[in-house]
């Protein structure tokens, strides 16, 4: 896939949560909430200040992040559902966690 977000936008792939609770109860698809955790697929170059200098983003490809429930816009690229959002919509980066899904 060839997609590069512009300015301070970030492309994110949702990371699906487990289908069972800690007690072993299976959660049906209709009762599941969309995950608020994802992996950064691609980032834009950053924002420009008033003098024209580019400020790089704090997140990078491969980071696991948390974002708001209603953040971003859902898009479909190459048959895969992804989210594009501004970096300011990301709540934080999960450090010390390995990505569940390796890049292809």
The CATH homologous superfamily corresponds to GroES chaperonin
Shape descriptor reads elongated
Query: Any low-confidence stretches, pLDDT <50, length ≥5?
Result: none
Measured distance between first and last alpha carbons: 10 Å
CATH class: Mainly Beta
Determine the CATH topology.
10 Kd Chaperonin, Protein Cpn10, Chain O
Structural class: mainly beta
From the alpha-carbon coordinates, what is the Rg to the nearest angstrom?
15 Å
| Average of the residue pLDDT scores | 82
Total separate domains:
1
Task: Give structural notes.
The chain has one domain: GroES chaperonin (10 Kd Chaperonin, Protein Cpn10, Chain O, Roll). A 6-stranded antiparallel beta sheet has the order 6-7-1-2-5-8, with no helix packed on it. A two-stranded antiparallel ribbon has the order 3-4. It is elongated. It is an all-beta fold and 104 residues long. The protein has strands spanning 9-14, 37-43, 47-48, 54-55, 64-67, 73-77, 80-86, 90-94. It has no helices and 8 strands.
């Amino acid at each position: 896939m060839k997609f590069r977000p512009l300015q301070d936008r970030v492309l994110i792939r949702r990371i699906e949560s487990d289908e069972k609770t800690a007690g072993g109860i299976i959660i049906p698809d209709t009762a599941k909430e969309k995950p608020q955790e994802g992996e950064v697929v691609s980032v834009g170059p950053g924002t420009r200040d008033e003098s024209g200098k580019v400020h790089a983003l704090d997140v990078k490809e491969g980071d696991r992040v948390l974002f708001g429930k209603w953040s971003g816009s859902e898009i479909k690229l190459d048959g895969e559902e992804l989210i594009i959002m501004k970096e300011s919509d990301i709540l934080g980066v999960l450090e010390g966690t390995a990505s569940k899904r390796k890049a292809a």
